Amino acid sequence: LHDTILPRIPSGETLESKAGGLQLIQAIAGLGPQAFLPHLKHSLPFALNALQEESEVVHKQAVAAVKTLIDEYGATAPHLLLPRMQEALFFEEEEPRARAMDLFFSFC
Fold first, then answer.
1. What does the alpha-carbon distance between residue 62 and residue 19 come to, in Å, rounded to a whole number?
2. How many CA within 13 A on the CB side of residue 47?
3. pLDDT reading at 1 higher than 80
4. pLDDT level of residue 17 (50, 70, 90 thresholds)
5. DSSP labels for 21-65?
6. Mean pLDDT in residue range 65-72
């Protein structure tokens, strides 16, 4: 996951490979804490940073991945989600910042 999939999200050759990396985060996160909790801290920044992608294919998949992380781990591991989600509220561009704000509100 760390060496193969996560690097595809910011630097994949195609939009589909970027979205596919986010889809995998979403799928593995749904398997439960034993399968994904050790990877949460490393995966969340990739998913949040993908909110800044101009491509609708990528940023919609990023929103879905972050929503899954919030749903699965927001109640049990808020200490892992909150700091990086707060940083995302300060994205430079308005649209990614709005996406991050919507996700933050769903987290709270």
1. 7
2. 29
3. no
4. very high
5. HHHHHHHHHTT-HHHHHHHHHHHHHHHHHGGG-S-HHHHHHHHHH
6. 96
Q: Residue 18 pLDDT > 80, yes or no?
A: yes
What are the structure tokens assigned to 28, written together? 């593995």
CA distance 85 to 26: 17
Number of helices and strands (H, E) in the chain?
A: 6, 0
Half-sphere exposure of 48 (CA within 13 A, CB side): 25
Phi, psi of 77 (to 5 degrees): -140, 50
- 42 CB-contact burial (10 Å; exposed 0-12 / middle 13-18 / buried 19+): exposed
pLDDT at res. 40: 94
